[in-house]
TrEMBL record, chain A:
Chain's gene name: LOC108824181
This protein's GO CC annotations: cytoplasm
Cited InterPro entries: Longin-like_dom_sf (IPR011012), Sedlin (IPR006722)
Phylogenetic placement of the source organism: Eukaryota, Viridiplantae, Streptophyta, Embryophyta, Tracheophyta
Biological process per Gene Ontology, one example term: endoplasmic reticulum to Golgi vesicle-mediated transport
Name recorded for this polypeptide: Uncharacterized protein LOC108824181
A Pfam match: Sedlin_N
From TrEMBL, chain B:
Gene name for this UniProt entry: BnaA09g15790D
Family: Belongs to the TRAPP small subunits family. BET3 subfamily.
Predominant cellular place of this UniProt entry's protein: endoplasmic reticulum
Listed name of the protein: Trafficking protein particle complex subunit
Entry-linked PANTHER family: TRAFFICKING PROTEIN PARTICLE COMPLEX SUBUNIT 3
GO biological process: endoplasmic reticulum to Golgi vesicle-mediated transport; intra-Golgi vesicle-mediated transport
Protein function: May play a role in vesicular transport from endoplasmic reticulum to Golgi.
Gene Ontology CC: one annotated term: endoplasmic reticulum
Pfam families the record matches: TRAPP
Keyword vocabulary terms for this entry: Endoplasmic reticulum, ER-Golgi transport, Golgi apparatus, Transport
InterPro entries: Bet3, NO_sig/Golgi_transp_ligand-bd, TRAPP_component
Keyword Endoplasmic reticulum tagged: yes
Amino acid sequence: MANTACFMIVARNDIPIYEAEVGSAAKREDAAQLHQFILHAALDVVQDLAWTTSAMFLKSVDRFNDLVVSVYVTAGHTRLMLLHDSRNEDGIKSFFQEVHELYIKILLNPLYLPGSRITSTHFDTKVRALARKYL
Amino acid sequence: MAPVGPRSGDAIFSSIDRVNAELFTLTYGAIVRQLLTDLEDVDEVNKQLDQMGYNIGIRLIDEFLAKSGVSRCVDFKETAEMIAKVGFKMFLGVTASVSSWDADGTCCSIILEDNPLVDFVELPDTCQGLYYCNVLSGVIRGALEMVSMKTEVTWTRDALRGDDAYELQVKLLKQVAEEYPYKDDE
């Protein structure tokens, strides 16, 4: 399991709809803001990269000190972004693929409005379990 | 007269036209979603779904009787079995079970283990009072009313609210005698 990791889902209109700190490291007080800031900065890179490849998994697109940003872009241009410090590309890829499946389930829920915040606790527990498994 | 109709709806289910399950689920979801947006009140949506179900039910009963070939049921027990085993199988592709009869045989529970209407659905906090499948209770109420049984149908268990199955309580209020609907001078 990674020491630091922050997972975020960003909707196509650049609004974060889900956020989870999944690292095992003791939290710094400003960690959440710092992580948001780094991920936000990486969005521009993702924008450029997303159209140069047909793959959904963009691998690591940006780095900040020892933290790396890996991104997975779904067909609807929803971005699954992971900030991490481990170098386990296969694990991250599997993590993204499984979260994508979960995200599709959420999206198929007629009572969920696309682009709105994901409040499902079921989704949250599943994502955290996947993070423990793969990262 | 003993009924001569089928004991299960499998044969009819395999012979009638079907639609893709996801299309069906999402279409129903879209209806509920739209009602929630339009009426902005969960209780109103429940009422509206029930009314829609009623309107479906009063038409569906004819289709049911024509295609299934069942004849008159001798008592309410048989009616409930018929709904659960043949009706649900015919139109939803699932089989329900009937239980919890009261002493008079006028009140029972229809239990659905599997419900195709609710695939993918998770109730958000804003819709906690919603009976998502309320259309089903309306269908049963409407259909039974057309065969001269006034019933009251309520949800007693709903898996979307954390229970382990879907349970509809069907209560027979009274049997209406069939009567000639027109007066002579009209």
